[in-house]
TrEMBL record:
It comes from the Bacteria. It comes from Lusitaniella coriacea LEGE 07157. This is HEAT repeat domain-containing protein. Residues 1-21 are annotated as: Disordered.
């Protein structure tokens, strides 16, 4: 019976597999092998193999410098990022002048949202077209924080600056003055009381009994006399909140004859002001950043732009 086994015989030649070698491994043929693979690869393949150039020392650095002239923006941006990470003098000197953008390249710019006073309150302008329309100036007149090739990098930079700006005393002073005059403003859909409840903000809420507030304090881990409060400003704030219950009980002020809208404005204004103050003194900066997002909007925004002429940019981080 004939042997039908697929096993190779003693003098058979065996073909190798069809799977490509790992992109992070040393390429067969050294730097020339890497060049050959790069020449026939698509955009994603090229991006994945570029970090492996560092395996070839000076020759790999020379290759990455050449790739800085690649026609594909994402490819040459990746080469720039790899050179940034290389602790080699040759790489540092090559990228010292920045990253070259060509005409027609599309990039993501991170801008600081603008505060515009409209004779009654402030508007937070969070997109470039509106800024261009209101001020009549081209977008570059608005503070541009950074430019990025990859949107993911722009999103990281935008969030970091939003978080930083949200904790600044000067920007927080505008919080309760933004968007009061626009009846269609989406801020009117934001409920500060519900937000405080959902995030367990330790301030006195309307109609809340003192016993309930003290229970919330204890549930949050505070001692009955607040003796375990490690932040002095936070302790002073909470003690003042407890005292306010007694003051309100003595006042018993009725608002039946007052303007309902004015009362709602005062309550909301007071709650927003106190919420910001509590988040500051308790150093809950992540929640303060989220409050801005939920109640008003972004303190930074991302704008996609097309480069009109060749220009070098100096990245502050990753492209």
């Amino acid at each position: 019976m004939a042997n039908s086994s697929n096993s190779p015989k003693a003098h058979d030649a065996v073909l190798g597999g069809q799977s490509p070698p790992p992109v992070d491994g040393v390429t067969l043929g050294g730097i020339e092998g890497l060049r050959q693979r790069f020449a026939v690869g698509n955009c994603e393949q090229k991006i994945k193999m570029l970090p492996t150039a560092l395996n070839y020392g000076e020759a790999g650095i020379d290759f990455l410098i050449e790739v800085l002239n690649d026609p594909t923006l994402r490819v040459r941006a990746t080469a720039y990022n790899v050179l940034q990470d290389a602790d080699i003098e040759q790489a540092k000197s090559e990228i010292l002048q920045g990253f070259l953008l060509h005409q027609g390249d599309r990039i993501y710019s991170v801008y600081e949202s603008y505060l515009f006073y409209n004779d009654w309150c402030y508007d937070l302008i969070t997109y470039a077209e509106r800024i261009d329309y209101i001020y009549g100036f081209p977008v570059p007149f608005v503070p541009c924080l950074s430019r990025h090739i990859f949107r993911s990098s722009a999103e990281i930079a935008a969030k970091l600056h939003h978080d930083w700006r949200a904790i600044q005393e000067d920007i927080c002073s505008y919080f309760t003055q933004i968007g009061w005059d626009d009846s269609s403003d989406w801020r009117r859909e934001f409920n500060i009381i519900e937000w405080c409840k959902n995030n367990n903000i330790l301030i006195r809420l309307p109609q809340e009994e003192k016993a309930n507030f003290k229970t919330r304090l204890m549930d949050a881990g505070y001692a009955n006399d607040l003796s375990n409060c490690t932040l002095n400003e936070e302790m002073e704030f909470l003690l003042q909140e407890l005292m306010r219950f007694d003051e309100r009980e003595e006042e018993k002020i009725s608002h039946l004859n007052d303007d309902l809208e004015e009362i709602e404005w005062e309550i909301r204004h007071e709650l927003e002001t106190k919420t910001i103050r509590f988040l500051q003194v308790s150093q809950c900066y992540e929640l303060l950043s989220q409050l801005w997002l939920d109640a008003i909007g972004q303190l930074t925004f991302i704008h996609e732009e097309t480069i009109e002429e060749e220009i070098y940019i100096i990245p502050t981080g990753k492209l």
